[in-house]
Amino acid sequence: MISGTEKSLADCFGSDLQELVSGLGGEIASAQEITRLTSPRQRKAAFKLTFSDGRLFKARLSTSEEKRRRVTSVSALLGGLPLARIVAAQGRTTIEEWIAGVPLHEAEVTQEQVHQAGSLLGLIHTRTTVPAELRVDIPDVAWHMEKITSHLDTIATGYAGVKSGLCENILEIARQNQPATFESGLIHADFCASNMVLTGGGDIVLIDNEDLRVGALDYDLARCWCRWPMTEYQRQAFCEGYQQHRSLDSFMESSQFWVARALVLSMNVHLKHGRAAPALAEALHRLAEGEGVQIWPCLPVGQ
Questions:
Q1: Which residue, 19, 17, 90, is CA-closest to 58?
Q2: How far apart are alpha carbons 17 and 23 in whole angstroms?
Q3: For residue 303, what pLDDT is reported?
Q4: Contacts of 118 (CB under 8 A, 6+ apart)
Q5: How many CB atoms lie under 10 A from the CB of residue 169?
Q6: Are 60 and 142 in the same domain?
Q7: pLDDT of amino acid 43
Q8: Are 93 and 16 within 8 A, CB to CB?
Q9: Count of CB atoms situated within 10 Å of the CB of 284
Q10: Rounded mean pLDDT of 46-75?
Q11: Would you say the C-alpha torsion 23, 28, 34, 38 has a positive or negative sign?
Q12: Which of 29-38, 138-147, 214-223 has the lowest mean pLDDT?
């Protein structure tokens, strides 16, 4: 392993990565940095590793050991589904299998493949074998409402493109549409095309699963809509695939609340990292002005 790469890996992972690599009976021949985020609040990274025997893996540094343990536990409950498998974990570090394929957001995706993706999210949401220890401290509706409020405060003070009254309107929409309760279960929390690959065999596989947790299923649906632009026909196919496993009725009833939650979170993240988000801003304005935001073909906001 070249010294520069060795130093970069040691800076990120400490001794954990090397111990895990040794436990897999391997030796790192090369490493390619995929992503890295270093800030006062978060420090995470991902590398593509090539072992000297030709095996490929992804090494990931989580923001905390607690988060790594949670993701490892939830991932183990999703055996048999097309997710990149964790093969070793220690401290804040995981080593995952490397899935070769074309990033889904760069591929020409068919309606059948989008249907397959919807079915996959439905399968994740309906896994019933969730241990009691993972159901501890699931945020309630009041917590989500508090997050909407705090994120809107940040948007109101930090985004110059906000029209007068926008944040107040969205907050009122959220209050009027908040559910009394919600169904919780396993969620991906970032289910979108940029976190999937299309394999040579035409299968869709989730490759970035660092936010797996137990939470509100309808929030996960809204988050998916926010992160994954689709055509009308693709959304219909996704919806049909999802409904093979779970009804969308509860999502329909409180869609505006969950869409507000997903949109203001995404906008808040963009503001923190100084990134422009014109599409998000437009969606927020449409929601606030009651024009309707198309969630799924059959589920327009405002209905």
A1: 17
A2: 10
A3: 30
A4: 237, 238, 239, 240, 241, 242, 243
A5: 18
A6: no
A7: 63
A8: yes
A9: 28
A10: 94
A11: positive
A12: 29-38
Ordered DSSP codes for the chain? --HHHHHHHHHHHTTHHHHHHHHTT--EEEEEEEEEEE-SS-EEEEEEEEETTS-EEEEEE-S-HHHHHHHHHHHHTTTTSSBPPEEEEETTEEEEE---SEEGGGS---HHHHHHHHHHHHHHHT-----GGGGTT---HHHHHHHHHHHHHHHHHH-TTPPTTHHHHHHHHHHHH--S---EEEE-S--SGGGEEE-TTS-EEE---TT-EEEEHHHHHHHHHHH----HHHHHHHHHHHTTTS-SHHHHHTHHHHHHHHHHHHHHHHHHTT---HHHHHHHHHHHTTS--EEETTEETT-
d(CA 303, CA 301): 6
Residues in the chain: 303
Tokens of 192: 């979108």
Q: With contact defined as beta carbons under 8 Å apart, do 125 and 220 qualify?
A: yes
Give yes or no: residues 34 and 117 share one domain.
Answer: no
The residue range of the domain holding 78 is: 3-97
Return the residue matching tokens 């988060």: 67
Q: What is the CATH number of the domain that holds 131?
A: 3.90.1200.10
Q: Are 74 and 65 in contact (CB under 8 A)?
A: no
CA distance 92 to 69: 8
Q: Are residues 257 and 183 in the same domain?
A: yes
Instruction: Give residue 26's region: left, alpha or beta (phi > 0; psi -120 to 50).
Output: beta
More confident of the two residues 254 and 36 = 254
Residue 129 pLDDT exceeds 50: yes
Residue 298 has pLDDT above 50, yes or no: no
- Does residue 55 sit in the same domain as residue 199? no
